[in-house]
Amino acid sequence: TSATSTELNKDLHVAHFNAGDLMRDITGQPHEKETGPIQREIAVDIALDEKQESIARNSTETGPVILEGRFAGYVAKKASIINPNLRTFIVLLETSEDEAARRKFKQGENTSLEQTKADQRERADQEVQKLQEAHPEIGNSNPMDQKAEAYGHWIYDLIIINDGMPVKEVAEVL
Q1: What average pLDDT score do residues 131-159 get?
Q2: How far apart are CA 57 and CA 35, in angstroms?
Q3: Residue 31 confidence (pLDDT)
Q4: Measuring CA to CA, which residue among 78, 80, 97, 98 is closest to residue 88?
Q5: How wide is the angle at C-alpha 127 spanned by C-alphas 107 and 104, nearest 5°?
Q6: Contact at 8 Å (CB) between 69 and 20?
Q7: Whole-prediction pTM
Q8: Mind listing the pLDDT tens digit for each residue in 1-17?
Q9: Is the Cβ–Cβ distance between 68 and 91 less than 8 Å?
Q10: Helix crossing, 97-106 with 113-134: angle to 10°?
Q11: Which are the contacts of 90, defined by CB distance < 8 A and separation ≥ 6?
Q12: Residues 38-52, mean pLDDT to the nearest whole number
């Protein structure tokens, strides 16, 4: 999604906020390519969500923004429900488990494709658990699910299955 957001922003020229960058600002930790995934307390997730929600709320004054992150859609939807004047267009870029593992494996972080898949499954499960802990209102649901709802509203306005799609093509669709 980072590459797609960057490509999309070449045409839109709006503020772009990546959840990983925001989290590193909050924790002071370096990029995960240098250290591995950030290990964090739930308070960090809550602070990140509050930061993203603040950015979304303030966009009515500062102008359009791109919020990028696993939970950014939920946060933006919540902000738009609280403030009906906040206009959002929330996109889920969905990639199959196999495609996501192939992309990550190409980066050379694991010795096998199967281990990459297992690591990604574990990380996704951990992320959902953290989100459920940080936001008890979502119960047992997974806000990254295509059919996810927030406060009785669908989260996503558009879902793009981007397996095999070059970044530039995804950005053009958007």
Answers
A1: 81
A2: 32
A3: 62
A4: 80
A5: 10
A6: yes
A7: 0.78
A8: 688 888 888 888 888 99
A9: no
A10: 110
A11: 73, 76, 77, 155, 156, 157, 158
A12: 84
